[in-house]
């Protein structure tokens, strides 16, 4: 078993399980501040033990559990224009940047069409709409939804030429406390849908995202205490940079090298 997968599974089994409804009630966080950390498995084990410690003031973090499962497979397709407008807007830190993806929750079969963009104060805001089985991700309804979100948020038109850029696959466990959510991803695989090339993340790293309506969480403080700093890393931008080395990785180049050491960046 991949070390990161083993570490995440052990942490999940040590926590109190809670249903999806409780996670949404305590920390749905469709608008949130988030930070990403590339955490070695040894550090992750200690970090997760502190999060789920029953002696923690305010109570331990709980773990999302659905139908007895505490970790889940996520499969996503990212959409971009032929000239990779979304990628380059993120590379240049454009104020009006956004990502478009289709997400499949592989264990339940649920599909979502999602748009992630930046709010006025730098927070990440996610808009999503369910996709029915067999429905086209870029059919009339999703395109209308995309156009509406971009118009009312940024006052811009949606791109007309969109296609699948890369796909990602990974395992996720979610820990939650009041107003805080920590997602822990392992076994990340990215595939370039233009070339067919694939890259896998370092099996000794857990990708930890801290999410809250505030600027700093307890999880951030714990990870900082272990000597870790938040990384310039998103699965789409880092994955595409690793898959296509000719693209200028810019400010996330160091994180790409750490996450995908086998890729020629």
Protein model, in words:
The protein is α+β, with helices and mostly antiparallel strands. The chain has a single domain (3-259), classed as Beta Barrel (Hypothetical Protein Pfu-838710-001). 29% of the residues lie in helices and 33% in strands. It is built from 8 helices and 11 strands. It has helices spanning 3-14, 20-27, 41-51, 85-91, 140-154, 218-225, 235-243, 253-259; strands at 17-18, 31-40, 62-64, 72-80, 98-105, 110-118, 124-131, 163-177, 180-192, 198-200, 205-212. An 8-stranded antiparallel beta barrel has the order 2-7-6-5-4-8-9-11, surrounded by 8 helices. Strand 5 (98-105) and strand 6 (110-118) form a beta hairpin. Helix 7 (235-243) crosses helix 8 (253-259). The longest helix is centred in the middle third of the chain and has 15 residues, at 140-154.
Name a few traits of the molecule.
265 residues, Hypothetical Protein Pfu-838710-001, eight-stranded antiparallel beta barrel
CATH architecture: Beta Barrel
Shape: globular
Low-confidence stretches: none
Instruction: State the share of residues found in helices, binned by percent.
Output: 25-40%
Question: CATH homologous superfamily name?
Answer: Hypothetical Protein Pfu-838710-001
Domain VTC: 63-243
Organism: Streptomyces albospinus
Protein name: VTC domain-containing protein
Secondary structure: elements and pairs:
Elements: H1 3-14, E1 17-18, H2 20-27, E2 31-40, H3 41-51, E3 62-64, E4 72-80, H4 85-91, E5 98-105, E6 110-118, E7 124-131, H5 140-154, E8 163-177, E9 180-192, E10 198-200, E11 205-212, H6 218-225, H7 235-243, H8 253-259
Parallel strand pairs: 1-3
Antiparallel strand pairs: 2-7, 2-11, 3-8, 4-5, 4-8, 5-6, 6-7, 8-9, 9-10, 9-11
Pfam families: VTC
Protein name: VTC domain-containing protein
Organism: Streptomyces albospinus
């Amino acid at each position: 078993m991949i070390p990161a997968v083993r570490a995440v599974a052990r942490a999940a089994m040590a926590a109190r399980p809670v249903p999806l409804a409780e996670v949404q009630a305590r920390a749905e966080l469709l608008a949130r501040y988030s930070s990403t950390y590339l955490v070695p498995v040894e550090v992750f084990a200690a970090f997760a033990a502190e999060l789920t410690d029953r002696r923690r003031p305010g109570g331990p973090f709980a773990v999302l559990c659905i139908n007895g499962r505490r970790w889940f497979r996520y499969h996503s397709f990212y959409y971009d224009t032929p000239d990779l407008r979304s990628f380059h807007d993120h590379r240049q830190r454009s104020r009006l940047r956004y990502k478009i993806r289709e997400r499949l929750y592989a264990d339940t079969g649920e599909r979502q069409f999602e748009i992630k963009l930046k709010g006025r104060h730098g927070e990440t805001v996610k808009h999503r709409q369910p996709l029915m089985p067999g429905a086209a991700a870029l059919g009339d309804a999703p395109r209308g939804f995309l156009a509406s979100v971009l118009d009312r948020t940024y006052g811009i038109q949606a791109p007309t030429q969109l296609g699948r850029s890369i796909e990602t696959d990974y395992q996720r466990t979610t820990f939650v406390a009041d107003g805080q959510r920590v997602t822990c991803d392992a076994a990340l695989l990215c595939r370039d849908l233009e070339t067919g090339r694939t890259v896998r993340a370092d099996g000794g790293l857990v990708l930890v995202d801290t999410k809250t309506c505030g600027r700093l969480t307890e999880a951030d403080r714990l990870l900082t205490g272990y000597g870790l700093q938040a990384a310039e890393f998103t699965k789409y931008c880092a994955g595409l940079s690793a898959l296509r080395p000719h693209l200028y990785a810019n400010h996330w180049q160091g994180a790409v090298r750490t996450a995908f050491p086998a890729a020629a960046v």
